[in-house]
């Protein structure tokens, strides 16, 4: 009886998985974004697939890297303030946003090498990297792997080397708890409703009023693209591999600014303080009344700090 019950549950989960896979929307890249119609969008054909990226401004180059589940819009409030002094390259990471979702393992190595290939594609020898959350982890791991190609780092509420125990917000902790269970994490991502997404986004900010219907909708559309549950599940299952890079973090010798929201529910400020203590010569700025995305929630203070830091000789 017990075996039949387990078999029935497995059949149900398999059916739900097939249903989720069949309900995915095809990837259709936009020619413009409604939140910034003037922003120039381009594509780069990399080894693993095509990446969408935005460009803006002129000057020393910066690549801005979003976090887990994120996309280009996470940097919407940096475009105007930073593009007056810098050339911005803002990609949807491979597997995310409007970039391709190839059937590969989404390891730290994949993200690091896709950034290197993007730099080669656009002809960048060196660059400063700005990363939020997972994008911050990719940034510091990239700097350790390809130090000759990095000028400066800005890490915003960045993923630390020992990421799993550092996570504190309920949504991510639930996903991490089931990440290695067959089928379940795929369903958890694929069956995410707008209401569930709104609750997750509210965990990213201090001021819940910032999570408006248009913000929820732009993120929801991305989550419905075919292949997204597989990408996010794979990313979660591979995330602990960043420890391999973290062992060398104390040897990082690039000028580094660490920015942290004092109300971050994902990685509490103690995580930022530990990164600051580990990265020699780094600077730490804690921004009041801000959650996990101070560049979006408190853009004025964040942008002033970035411009001042990158402008130093």
Which structural traits does this protein have?
globular; 14 helices; eight-stranded mixed beta sheet; about 325 residues; alpha/beta; Rossmann fold; single chain; about 40% helix
Named CATH topology = Rossmann fold
Q: Give me the secondary-structure category.
A: alpha/beta
Succession of helices and strands:
HEEEHEHEHEHHHHHHHEHEHH
Level-2 CATH architecture: 3-Layer(aba) Sandwich
As laid out across the biggest beta sheet, the strand order is 1-2-4-3-5-6-7-8
Number of strands: 8
Describe the protein in words.
The chain is of the alpha/beta class. The chain has a single domain (42-310), classed as Alpha/Beta hydrolase fold, catalytic domain (Rossmann fold, 3-Layer(aba) Sandwich). 42% of the residues lie in helices and 15% in strands. It contains 14 helices and eight strands. The chain has helices at 2-22, 79-83, 108-122, 134-145, 163-166, 170-177, 184-190, 194-202, 213-223, 228-238, 243-246, 269-278, 294-297, 299-310; strands at 40-45, 50-56, 61-65, 87-91, 127-132, 150-156, 256-261, 283-287. The protein has an eight-stranded mixed sheet with strand order 1-2-4-3-5-6-7-8, with helices on both faces. It starts with a helix and ends with a helix. Residues 5-22 have low confidence and may be disordered.
What's this entry about, in short?
This protein is α/β, with parallel strands linked by helices and 313 residues long. 42% of the residues lie in helices and 15% in strands.
List the helices and strands and how they pair.
Layout: H1 2-22, E1 40-45, E2 50-56, E3 61-65, H2 79-83, E4 87-91, H3 108-122, E5 127-132, H4 134-145, E6 150-156, H5 163-166, H6 170-177, H7 184-190, H8 194-202, H9 213-223, H10 228-238, H11 243-246, E7 256-261, H12 269-278, E8 283-287, H13 294-297, H14 299-310
Parallel strand pairs: 3-4, 3-5, 5-6, 6-7, 7-8
Antiparallel strand pairs: 1-2, 2-4
Helix pairs in contact: 1-7, 3-4, 7-10, 8-9
């Amino acid at each position: 009886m017990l075996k039949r019950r387990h078999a029935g549950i497995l059949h149900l989960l398999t059916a739900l998985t097939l249903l989720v896979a069949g309900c995915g929307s095809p990837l259709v890249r936009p020619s413009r974004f409604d939140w910034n119609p003037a922003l120039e969008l381009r594509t780069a054909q990399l080894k693993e697939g095509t990446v969408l990226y935005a460009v803006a401004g002129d000057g020393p180059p910066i690549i801005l890297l979003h976090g887990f589940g994120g996309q280009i819009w996470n940097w919407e409030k940096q475009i105007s303030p930073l593009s007056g002094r810098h050339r911005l390259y803002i990609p949807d990471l491979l597997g995310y946003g409007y970039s391709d979702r190839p059937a590969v393992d989404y390891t730290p190595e994949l993200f690091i090498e896709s950034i290197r290939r993007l730099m080669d594609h656009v002809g960048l020898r060196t660059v400063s990297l700005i990363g939020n959350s997972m994008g911050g982890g990719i940034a510091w791991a990239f700097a350790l792997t390809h130090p000759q190609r990095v000028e400066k780092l800005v890490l915003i509420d960045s993923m630390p080397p020992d990421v799993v125990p550092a996570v504190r917000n309920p949504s991510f902790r639930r996903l991490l708890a089931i990440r290695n269970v067959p089928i379940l994490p795929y369903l958890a991502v694929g069956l995410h409703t707008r209401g569930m997404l709104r609750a997750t986004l509210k965990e990213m900010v201090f001021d819940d009023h910032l999570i408006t219907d248009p913000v929820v909708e732009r993120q929801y559309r991305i989550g419905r693209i075919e292949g997204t549950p597989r990408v996010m599940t794979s990313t979660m299952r591979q995330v602990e591999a960043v420890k391999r890079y973290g062992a060398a973090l104390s040897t990082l010798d690039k000028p580094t600014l660490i920015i942290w929201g004092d109300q971050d529910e994902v990685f509490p400020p103690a995580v930022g303080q530990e990164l600051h203590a580990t990265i020699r010569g780094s600077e730490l700025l804690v921004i009041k009344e801000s959650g996990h995305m101070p560049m979006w929630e408190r853009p004025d203070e964040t942008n002033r700090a970035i411009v001042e830091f990158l402008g130093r000789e």
